[in-house]
């Protein structure tokens, strides 16, 4: 990979929406190979498995859908329809080509969202992490959810602790809150973050 190509370290160092847009515009075409495959990215599979376990049903909102890795995983389980939301139009164009989404929305989830609402399931794979999205997005996402909607969010475990997700969740109208810590990357992953954990955060909108 060229020395200045986007990578996990540059993603974790992001500061603000404009920096994210620039990075992912450049990374979109190679993301599935230079990140997801090279790092054996496991979270889309975790989301799929938890959706099956907890009886997820559509419509589903894939938060920070990126190139559509979660959409592909859910389509394989017959869970849908699925809509995608992501900050990067370029990443969404890659996702669109996979044909697994009903609709795609380019938007910043840390701001009020112009979405149809009424989602029965809301999922996320890697958006709540260093340099990306904190707990300030949660109220906006709850507004897009139907009463009783299932949330399955991957939150980087260090990010979870550093940004007070526990306190934020306690203040929101959610029920049935539970956590599972799982590896983010599989065998063969290399680098300083190869052993990082995600805190799979499962709850329902009250």
- DSSP helix count? 9
Shape: globular
Report strand order across the widest sheet.
3-2-1-4-5-7-6
Let me know the largest β-sheet: 7 strands, mixed
The fold-level CATH name is Rossmann fold
Q: Report mean pLDDT, rounded to a whole number.
A: 91
- The level 1 CATH classification is Alpha Beta
- Summed up, the domain count is 1
Q: State the end-to-end CA separation.
A: 46 Å
CATH architecture title = 3-Layer(aba) Sandwich
Strand segment count: 7
Poorly predicted regions: none
The fraction of residues assigned to DSSP E strands is 25-35%
Rg (CA only): 16 Å
Q: Mind telling me the CATH superfamily name?
A: Vaccinia Virus protein VP39
Structural class computed from helices and strand pairing: alpha/beta
Helix and strand sequence: HHHHEHEHEEHEHHEE
Query: Helical proportion?
Result: 25-40%
Domain Methyltransferase: 60-144
Protein name: Methyltransferase domain-containing protein
GO molecular function: polyprenyldihydroxybenzoate methyltransferase activity
Pfam families: Methyltransf_25
Task: Give the SSE map.
Layout: H1 8-12, H2 17-27, H3 31-37, H4 43-53, E1 60-63, H5 69-76, E2 82-86, H6 89-98, E3 103-106, E4 119-128, H7 138-143, E5 145-156, H8 157-162, H9 165-170, E6 174-183, E7 197-205
Parallel strand pairs: 1-2, 1-4, 2-3, 4-5
Antiparallel strand pairs: 5-7, 6-7
Helix pairs in contact: 4-5
């Amino acid at each position: 990979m060229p020395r200045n190509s986007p990578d996990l370290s540059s993603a974790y160092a992001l500061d603000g929406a404009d920096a994210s847009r620039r990075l992912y515009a450049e990374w979109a075409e190679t993301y599935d190979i230079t990140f997801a495959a090279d790092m054996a990215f496991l979270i889309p599979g975790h989301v799929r498995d938890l959706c099956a376990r907890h009886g997820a049903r559509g419509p589903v909102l894939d938060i920070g859908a990126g190139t559509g890795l979660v959409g592909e995983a859910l389509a394989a389980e017959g869970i849908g329809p699925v809509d995608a939301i992501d900050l990067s139009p370029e990443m969404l164009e890659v996702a669109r080509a996979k044909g697994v989404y009903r609709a795609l929305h380019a938007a910043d989830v840390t701001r009020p969202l112009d979405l149809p609402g009424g989602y029965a399931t809301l999922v996320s794979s890697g958006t709540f992490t260093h340099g990306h999205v904190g707990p300030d997005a949660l109220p906006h996402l709850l507004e897009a959810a139907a009463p009783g909607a299932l949330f399955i969010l991957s939150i980087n475990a260090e990010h979870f602790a550093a940004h007070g997700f526990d306190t934020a969740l306690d203040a929101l109208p959610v029920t049935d809150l539970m956590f599972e810590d799982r590896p983010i990357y599989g065998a063969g992953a290399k680098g300083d973050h190869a052993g990082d954990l995600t805190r799979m955060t499962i709850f329902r909108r009250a």
